[in-house]
Structure formats: structure tokens, C-alpha cells
Specification:
Length: 251
């Protein structure tokens, strides 16, 4: 039987590289899926509908979940995947840029989860999956606001898991390393010689490759399913072994 049969899922950032792969996988596993994003997806798999959604607007978030309450009798899966990054040190980051990164990556997650709670409580086994990053544990140079925001997501995830576990709501964070999406491509584009940089990034991984959105969707799918009924409050690193290894001189 399909792993998510009879479940409903709401995915922020559902038009992005990782979000779209998650929506497609959820639909394939039998869930009814809403891809919620400021951007419209290029294509929508069967079983997925798109809703224009801005995680930074509390009015829009509240209205969305009010309307969803009339459509669905419960929400089983919430994925908070909307996110942005800017590549700057603190010295070069303006206050406006800092606030924008936190508004989308952290406050947007808080607002969506807060207003989704009444519907999540109606599920017999709800699962919330937040997008952190390996950058929340260790830092990529020149990515300060992003690294700080992902550290906040990790702490938020643990706190939510403690508060809402007794209500039967599981909360986990996925912490990817390099995943081949528009976000990663823009990181490469801003960094000069794309070919040699891509090769260097592959070479630094023990598995000698970076991840695909489907690699991430596989783990998200399991965390969303009832097989993961005892998994909560954890930060699931999926990075091709990158963060397991110290940097060594190649002699
Ligand atoms: N790609 C990677 O290497 C990588 C690594 C670690 C963590 N992540 C995290 O995974 C998540 C998904 O990243 P991705 O690589 O798919 O990025 P992406 O840029 O492909 O997708 C992000 C999506 O978020 C949407 N978004 C931005 N602002 C929004 C807003 N205000 N409201 C609603 N939606 C908004 C964008 O329109 C986009 O569709 C992000 O949280 C990211 O930080 C990605």
C-alpha cells in the first residue's frame, strides 16, 4: 500500500527544487498535497495543487489555514521548506537583508506552524518537517545570516517537538548538505568558475557527489509516514557524509 494513503500535506516552498520533489513524492504515495509558494511551479504532478502563499504575511497565513479548515478535516503533514540565502559576511549584510532572511527562514516557519496547529491536532498522527541545514551546525564561509537562521530552525524544531509531542504531533528537521536545486545553482553562479567549483564541491564529499531533491524527498517521505511514529525532535543530517569528515590536506 502507498505510504501516505489518506493523508493531507501542506508544503511551503513547494515550487522550489526540494519542495517540488517532496510534493511529487507525497502525491505518488497517495497523499492529497498543496504546494504553497510565492512562485508558481513550472509543472504540477497529479494530486498536487498550488496555492500562492507568502510565509512572511501573518494575514495570508491565517486566511490560508481558515480556508483549509473548510476543505480538509485534518492536516497530517506540514513541510516548512520555503527558504532563501544570501552570500555575505556580517560586515556586508544590511539589516534589511538580515531581517529578510530571518522573516522567511525562521519567522515564516513559526507563523505557518502556529496557524496550522488547530488542523494538525485533528490528525491521528501529525508530522511537521522543518528545513534546517548542515549550515546550522557548521558554517560555509560568507553565508552568515543563512547559517544563523538555520541554527534558529534547529532550536525551534526541538522546542516545538517538546511542546506538541504530548498532543501527538511529531516535529523533526531535515538538515541537507549540498543539494542540486536553483538555490545551489545560484550559489555556484555567484562564485565564478562554475565547472571547477562544482567538481571541487563533489570531491570534498566522502560519497563524491552532491544530493538530488529526490534524495531529500525520500527521507522526508519516511518522516511523514506512520513508519516514523517514534521519531521526533531530531535534526536529520543528509549530506553525503560531508559533515562527518575533517578537512585534510591532499598529499
Ligand atoms: N539546496 C541546498 O543545497 C540546500 C541545503 C540545505 C538546506 N536547504 C534548504 O532546503 C529548503 C528548500 O531549498 P531549495 O534548495 O529547494 O531552494 P529553492 O530556492 O529551489 O526553493 C525555495 C522555495 O522557497 C520559496 N519562497 C521564498 N520565499 C518565500 C516566501 N516568502 N513564501 C513562500 N515561499 C517562498 C521560493 O519561491 C522557492 O520556490 C530551504 O529551506 C533551504 O534553505 C537547501
Amino acid at each position: 500500500m502507498a505510504m501516505l494513503s489518506g493523508k493531507t500535506a501542506f508544503v511551503t516552498g513547494g515550487a522550489g527544487g526540494i519542495g517540488a520533489a517532496i510534493c511529487a513524492r507525497f502525491a505518488k504515495e497517495g497523499a492529497e498535497v498543496i504546494a504553497a509558494d510565492v512562485a508558481e511551479p513550472a509543472a504540477l504532478p497529479e494530486g498536487v495543487t498550488w496555492r500562492r502563499y507568502d510565509v512572511t504575511s501573518e494575514a495570508a497565513v491565517r486566511q490560508t489555514f481558515d480556508e483549509l479548515g473548510g476543505l480538509w478535516d485534518k492536516l497530517d503533514i506540514l513541510v516548512n521548506a520555503a527558504g532563501i540565502e544570501i552570500e555575505k559576511t556580517i560586515e556586508d549584510t544590511t539589516l534589511e537583508e538580515w531581517n529578510r532572511v530571518f522573516a522567511i527562514n525562521v519567522t515564516g516557519m513559526f507563523l505557518t506552524a502556529k496557524h496550522a496547529l488547530p488542523l494538525l491536532r485533528k490528525s491521528p498522527g501529525a508530522s511537521v518537517i522543518n528545513f534546517g541545514s548542515y549550515d546550522g551546525f557548521i558554517a560555509d564561509p560568507g553565508l552568515t545570516a543563512y547559517c544563523a537562521s538555520k541554527g534558529a530552525v534547529h532550536a525551534l524544531t526541538r522546542a516545538m517537538a517538546c511542546d506538541h509531542g504530548p498532543e501527538g504531533i511529531r516535529v523533526n528537521a531535515i538538515c541537507p548538505g549540498y543539494v542540486d536545486t536553483p538555490m545551489l545553482q545560484s550559489f555556484f553562479r555567484d562564485s565564478g568558475d562554475i565547472e571547477s567549483l562544482q567538481q571541487a564541491v563533489r570531491d570534498v564529499h566522502p560519497l563524491r557527489s552532491y544530493g538530488t531533491p529526490d534524495d531529500i524527498a525520500n527521507l522526508v517521505n519516511w518522516l511523514a509516514s506512520d513508519e516514523a511514529r517514534y521519531a521526533s525532535g531530531q535534526l536529520w543530517v543528509i549530506d553525503g557524509g560531508l559533515s562527518a569528515q575533517v578537512q585534510q590536506m591532499r598529499l
